[in-house]
Each structure stands twice: as C-alpha cells, then as structure tokens.
Amino acid sequence: MNSNASRPVPPADTGSALRNWVSDTLLRLIQAERRIDPFIRPAFDAVLRDPLARLTTALINAQRRNEGLKIAEERLLPGEEEFVDSIIESFRQQGAKLWKPGGVERGGNTKTQGIVRAEFIVHEGLPAELRHGIFAQPRTYKAWVRFSGPGPYVTPDIDDVGFMSISVKLMGVPGPKLMEEEKFTQDMFGVSPPTFVTPDVRANAQLQIESVKNAQIFYFFNLRRPHVLDAIMQGLWTKTQSSPLEAPYFSCVPYLLGEGQAMQYSFWPKRQ
Questions:
Q1: Would the pTM count as exceeding 0.90?
Q2: Closest Cα to residue 57, out of 219, 176, 179, 234?
C-alpha cells in the first residue's frame, strides 16, 4: 500500500459518545489552527517559544525523581516487560484495524515525506573529547535519509499535527552490531520537538492504548495519569511545516560518547 496516499484519521472509538465527540472536536480545532499557524507562528516562536519551553522543561524536571543512575546505567521500571507487551499488542490491534493484510504500515512515523541520498561529513578540528565512534576521524560517510510525518495514519499534510521525524542510515561504519545484515551501518534518529512525546515505556503504553481508540488526546488529558506538560511541550514545537528540509530535528535522548560522557545531537537546516 502506498504510504504517501492520504488516509485521514478515523473517528474516535472510545466506547463513549461524549469522549468520541470531545476527541474528534479537539482534533478538528487542531487542524483548523494548522491553517492559520504560518501567520502567527514566526512571531510566537521568536518571542515566546524558548522561554515557555525552558519553563515547561523545569516543571517537568521538578516532577522527576533522582534515581542516582550513572551515565549509561539503566534500570528496568517495575512491570516494564508488561508495558512492552502492551505496546506490542496495541500496535497489533491498530495495524489490523487500519490496514489490510499484506499492506500494513509501521505504527509510528508512518507517512514517508521522502528518501534521499546524502553525505554525513565529520570535519577536522573536533575537540579531543568528542572524537569517539563515527566522530573519531575526519571522514565522509555515504548515507540514506528518510523524512517522515506522524503516525499511525497517513493524513494530508495540512491535517497532520506537524510532528516530523528524520532517520539517517550511515554506510560503511565498522564495529560490532546487533544484526548481521546491519554490520556496516549505523542509524541516527531525530524528531522535530526537542523532547519525545512520552517520557518512559509506561507512559508510551498508555499512549498506544488511547491511539488504538483514535483518541490520543486522552493520553495527555487524563484524569488519572495526565501528561499536560508533555502536551504543552509538543505544542510549542509542532507546527505547520513548510518542508521536511526546513525543520530542525532532535535526538531527544542522550547517547554514550566515549567513557563517562553522553551527548544529545540535533540536525539543523542550513540556508544558503
């Protein structure tokens, strides 16, 4: 099935007529805002976006518990395997509802905006502490880049929520890999907001349950487990995009870079 063919968001199916109406109405309001967004967004971004993003980040961090983890140290959440199983089951249910057998699309970043050939250039002069992995030596890697929109639907551009993503596959990268067929590649990912839509696997399982109902809004505005601050952060950075090539993309999570240090990376457009 052609992932570039429009597939509008189906009506909400929460089991409640009132909740369906609320979800569908809020979605229509977001789609209406997307049509006036290009006229108000530049001024908003210039004056308010960054201060509000810093304030929202501070409020989110204030709610986080310091677990005392070291760099690159991971600890499973209580019930994490059950949350992962729930996410898998939600994707299975949603794929069965949205797509016919043999034409199932991926559950996230579903809409392909384009795939391009590229070069990933590691320049000379990087500080010594940054010269690890693919940044160890000045070099140019051949790469494939996929630009994509939100999922799990394939909506017309003007009707999506303005969430963009990028996937970069570097070629000719040595070193051990988890998969034999990827032994000479390395993947890098980014999305247009600097923070991911869910903070952990527990929250993501909650989002996917609401997504099966085509009512993702009730993940953010939930009486028992609300994620209002996450909704604000997403709203500050998702907008009516003019082009996949003009949006910045952020890794959202840190990656180990050498011993005892981590980094987050981002991709920024360069205008001539």
A1: no
A2: 234
